Amino acid sequence: MRNSSSPHPSRWHTISQISGGILLGIGIFWLAKLLFFHTPAAAPLMPGTGAGARPTVSAVGGSPLTFSTPAPLRAAGITVSAIQPPSTMSETQALQLAGQDEPDAASSAKKQVADAVTLSYPASKVVKGHADFNHSIAWMVWYQQVPQGGDGIAIDKQPSHDLYIFLDAKTGQELFTIWS
């Protein structure tokens, strides 16, 4: 019988220490890889956060794509849901048409995004002058970080704004625009 206080550890104890060290090393390597070598493009963005913000898109079990409506649109009572692009107009055509409608914003925006969406924007008694949109198929063109123009004194001290342009997916006609 061996004394537990002997200066030489048992063979199983040595093997256990070696395998524990290897597993600890693998765990540290895996954690370092996750923390330092992740792909930023794959990280989801929350709507309305940062310069590259875009609605978060996720597919759910074969159903149409859905994403969170950006905060400025929600505040205006507008909801949008992503859909597969309609065959009547491409993303490139939507960007071109929006660029013709708002050439200054198109040329000076830091980023341009076009998404095919279903648009819901009920007519209200408070905001007059727009039609009632209920699950209308549209293109949402989002110009991000458009520099604020004008030489006069601005009430809003933000250096840039976002512009949302909604185009009818069939005709390409501008439905309305929202500055935020």
Question: What can you see in these coordinates?
Answer:
It is a single chain. By secondary structure, the chain is of the alpha+beta class. The protein folds into two domains: 38 residues; 134 residues, no CATH class. The chain has four helices and seven strands, in the order H-E-E-H-E-H-H-E-E-E-E. The strands form two sheets. The chain has a five-stranded antiparallel beta sheet. Strands 1-2 form a two-stranded antiparallel ribbon. A hairpin with a 7-residue loop joins strand 1 and strand 2. The relative contact order is 0.13. About 15% of the residues have low confidence.
Give a quick precis of the structure:
With about 180 residues, the chain is α+β, with helices and mostly antiparallel strands.
Structural class: alpha+beta
Q: Calculate the terminal CA-CA distance, rounded to whole Å.
A: 81 Å
Our count of helices gives 4
Strand arrangement within the widest β-sheet reads 3-4-5-6-7
Q: Mind sketching the topology for me?
A:
Elements: H1 11-36, E1 57-58, E2 66-67, H2 71-75, E3 79-82, H3 91-101, H4 103-108, E4 111-121, E5 133-147, E6 160-168, E7 174-179
Antiparallel strand pairs: 1-2, 3-4, 4-5, 5-6, 6-7
State the main characteristics.
180 residues; alpha+beta; 2 domains; five-stranded antiparallel β-sheet; two-stranded antiparallel ribbon; 4 helices
